[in-house]
Amino acid sequence: MAEPARRLNEDRDAGYPLEVTYEEIRAASERGDVVPLSDIITDIVRYRDHWWIAHTHTWLLITDPATIAKLDRHADWANPKLLQDP
């Protein structure tokens, strides 16, 4: 996996969105493309190789490198399938 900060900057430069709709996450979840951080923490998900957090009317891309690193470490423990390459 690429370093979170570098990967995020590359994605932002490529026009990667900072938010997605609930409908997009719902459809992606039905396809199996969304994985929650854990069975209990379902408002933080892994989607399109990034972390997203639920907000009032949308899902927001998590951009803070320290937070991304913490989520990656937690996922290693709570839900190892999140960080496995397909």
Structural account:
- This protein has 86 residues and is an alpha+beta fold.
- The chain is 40% helix and 20% strand.
- It has three helices and five strands; from the N terminus they run αβαββββα.
- The chain has helices at residues 4-13, 22-31, 65-78; strands spanning 19-20, 34-36, 44-47, 50-54, 59-61.
- The protein has a five-stranded antiparallel sheet with strand order 1-5-4-3-2, with helices on one face.
- Strand 2 (34-36) and strand 3 (44-47) form a beta hairpin.
- The longest helix is centred in the C-terminal third of the chain and has 14 residues, at 65-78.
SSE run: HEHEEEEH
What average pLDDT do the residues reach? 82
Main sheet makeup: 5 strands, antiparallel
Alpha-carbon distance between the termini?
Answer: 12 Å
How many strands?
Answer: 5
How much helical structure, as a percent, in the residues? 25-40%
Structural class designation? alpha+beta
Strand order of the largest sheet: 1-5-4-3-2
Backbone CA Rg: 12 Å
Q: Please, how many helices? A: 3
Strand content: 15-25%
What is the overall silhouette?
globular
Low-confidence stretches: none
Summary?
The chain has helices at 4-13, 22-31, 65-78; strands at 19-20, 34-36, 44-47, 50-54, 59-61. It is α+β, with helices and mostly antiparallel strands.
